[in-house]
Hints:
There is one protein chain. With 167 residues, the chain is an alpha+beta fold. The protein has three domains: 4-78, Winged helix-like DNA-binding domain superfamily/Winged helix DNA-binding domain (Arc Repressor Mutant, subunit A, Orthogonal Bundle), CATH 1.10.10; 82-114, no CATH class; 124-150, no CATH class. The protein has helices spanning 4-12, 15-25, 31-38, 42-54, 76-79, 82-96, 144-147, and strands at 58-64, 69-74, 105-106, 113-114. The chain starts with a helix and ends in a 20-residue tail after the last helix. 9% of the residues are buried.
Amino acid sequence: xxxxxxxxxxxxxxxxxxxxxxxxxxxxxxxxxxxxxxxxxxxxxxxxxxxxxxxxxxxxxxxxxxxxxxxxxxxxxxxxxxxxxxxxxxxxxxxxxxxxxxxxxxxxxxxxxxxxxxxxxxxxxxxxxxxxxxxxxxxxxxxxxxxxxxxxxxxxxxxxxxxxxxx
Length: 167
């Protein structure tokens, strides 16, 4: 499926994968450390680690020859998942933690809690409705352009013109 949400979920959509990435972001790197932290079965952990390596989110590196042992470290792609994870933490705290947050994002210098928002890199403005919406991009193929065509909704609204993709 050409949708970036579907493509992302194809690589990390299984919930163990997200928990493995969460632990990798806090420095866990070895199979036994992941297993102890997550309480996950050996076969499941092996499949998920292999999948994350294949997807390019983790790199498998040997750290011992006899017997062979490996560590799993975040790649640049895996590191780019950090803001997604932080958003999940904030969203979960906001909507599913009536007793209060069990994980928080903090400023490492001050200890102050942070509440992430998504901002546009160029304008530094928060990306929020109604000003922002999802639209089909220049390489989109049907059905995405039909599904994600912006409709004019009053003054200041704009229709996105998608240039045709030439093969």
